[in-house]
Amino acid sequence: MNGKKILFVSSELVPYLPENEVSLMSYETPRMVNSKGGQIRIFMPRYGNINERRHQLHEVIRLSGMNLVINDMDMPLIIKVASIPKERIQVYFIDNEEYFKRKATFTDENGDMFADNDERAIFFAKGVVETVKKLNWNPDIIHVHGWMSSLLPLYLRKYYADEPLFADSKIVLSVYGKSFEGTLDKDLIKKVTFDGIPEDAVTLLKEPTYNNLLKIGVNNSDAVILAAEGIPEDLLSHINNLQKPVLPYVPLQEFEEAYANFYDTEVLK
Predict the structure, then answer these.
(1) Does 175 score more than 90 pLDDT?
(2) Nearest CA among 80, 113, 91, 76 for reference residue 213
(3) 3-state secondary structure of 191
C-alpha cells in the first residue's frame, strides 16, 4: 500500500454517525491503508445529525461555491472538512442545505425513507467527483461503501468517462446486507438519463430497490468486496455471474491482510 492513493467514499462513517457494519468498515479500511503508508482521502455526506461543533467541521471556501445540476435544478455544493483526531485522518463532507440539513440520515421520524434520497445520492456522487477534480488528486483505487454511494461507479464510468484524472483509477465496491425496503423514487432513472447516461446502462433503475442500486454499482466497478455475511441471494448471484474479482467475507479481526492483499493482487494487478 506504500504510496498508493486510495479514495474512500462512504454513506456512513464512525465517529460521525453511529456504529454499524458500513460506518465501521468505512473507518477501519482507510485507517489500515493509512497505517501501511498509503495516501487516503475520505468523503461522506454532511447529514444534519452530525454535530459540527463537537467534530469541528469547517467549510473549505476554495472548494465550495460550485452548482451541481440535479434533475435540471442548480444545487449549491458546500464542502466541509474535519479530522479524526487519534488517527490524524482528514474527512471531506459533501453538503447542501436542501439535501442534507435535516437532522437525520436516510429516514424521517416514522422510519420512512426520504422522498429525495435518489437525488441526494446523485448529488453526493457528483459532489465527490467535482471536489476530487478541484483537489487534482488522481486515486489509484476508489473504494465505495454504502448504498448512498452506489451511484458513484456509474457516474465515473458513464458521466465522467472522459475525465483524465480517473482514467487509470480502479473502482472497488464493498457490498453489505440489505439496508432498506421498497424503492427509491421511481423517477430515478429519468434523473440519471437526464445526465446523458444511456438508458440501456441503467434499466435496473426502473425498479430502484436496494439490490438493483447495488447491481448498478457492481456493473460499473472493477472488483467487489463482500463486506457482510447476510447479502441477498439475488444480489450475490448477480455478482458471481459478472466474473470480476470478488473478495469473500472476512471478519473484522482478519480483514487488514485480506483487503491489502486483494488491493495488491487483484485490483491493481
Answers:
(1) yes
(2) 113
(3) helix
**Model confidence, pTM:** 0.96
Average pLDDT, the chain: 94
Distances (CA, A) of 57 to 14, 46, 75, 248: 14, 9, 21, 36
Angle, nearest 10°, between helix axes 233-241 and 210-219? Answer: 10
Q: Which three cell numbers stand for residue 46?
A: 454532511
Burial class of residue 9 (count of CB atoms within 10 Å of its CB; 0-12, 13-18, 19+): buried
Q: How far is CA 182 from CA 50, 68, 150, in A?
A: 26, 28, 17
**Who's near 53: CB < 8 A, 6+ residues apart?**
none
Q: List, for residues 213-258, the tens digit of each pLDDT value.
A: 999 999 999 999 999 998 999 999 999 999 899 999 999 999 999 9
In angstroms, rounded to a whole number, what is the distance separating the alpha carbons of residues 76 and 91? 20
Q: In what order do the strands lie in the sheet with 89-95?
A: 58-59, 78-84, 89-95, 39-45, 5-10, 141-145, 170-175, 223-226, 246-247
* Each residue's pLDDT tens digit, 82-129: 998 787 889 999 999 999 999 999 998 888 899 999 999 999 999 999
DSSP states along 14-57? TTTS---HHHHHHHHHHHHHHHTT-EEEEEEE--TTS-HHHHT-
Which DSSP category does 183 fall into? B
Handedness of CA 197, 40, 12, 21 (dihedral sign): positive
Asked if residues 90 and 32 have their Cβ atoms less than 8 Å apart, the reply is: no
In this structure, the strands spanning 73-76 and 67-70 are: antiparallel
Q: Cβ-count burial of 111 within 10 angstroms (0-12 exposed, 13-18 middle, 19+ buried)?
A: exposed
